[in-house]
Design brief:
Layout lengths: L2 H5 L4 E4 L4 H13 L6 E4 L6 H4 L4 H6 L2 E3 L5 E3 H9 L6 H9 L3 H22 L7
Parallel strand pairs: 1-2
Antiparallel strand pairs: 1-3, 3-4
Helix pairs in contact: 5-6
């Protein structure tokens, strides 16, 4: 890892750039991130990225992950909330999800079901083969 990357205090979003839906959503978020508050890393393009963060490739392919500057890991709906905290036009959504008790957990449960379905579909194409 370069010295620059080691000194980078931005959160890191680990995403599946081989998934058309994921790629489209991340492209939308990246356009909104005009101040470069987030580092975006495509784990489909470079399977070694998750290991650099102490994570398994298969786990990061199954669910969206955000690695915070302090090393904390957010996944699923919690990862989306961490992204939305830093993007104009989405901060309000993150605040709403966190303000109403239990809502973020329910959204995460729904995301988990979707993520499992998405992963199964990706596996049908052979994308989820582990080296």
């Amino acid at each position: 890892m370069s010295t620059h990357a080691m000194n980078d205090v931005r959160p890191v979003v680990l995403f599946d750039g081989g998934c058309p839906l994921c790629r489209k959503e991340i492209a939308h978020y990246r356009r909104l991130d005009s101040k470069g508050r987030i580092r975006w890393e495509d784990i489909h393009a470079d399977r070694d990225i998750p290991g650099r963060h102490g994570l398994a490739w298969e786990d990061t392919m199954m669910r969206l992950h955000v690695v915070e500057a302090d090393g904390g890991i957010r996944t699923g709906a919690h990862a989306f909330a961490a992204i939305w905290d830093r993007l104009p036009g989405y901060r309000w959504l993150s605040r709403v999800l966190r303000a109403i008790p239990g809502v973020l957990g329910l959204v995460d449960a729904a995301y988990t079901r979707f993520a499992r379905w998405r992963w199964r579909r990706r596996c049908e194409t052979g994308t989820c083969d582990i080296r």
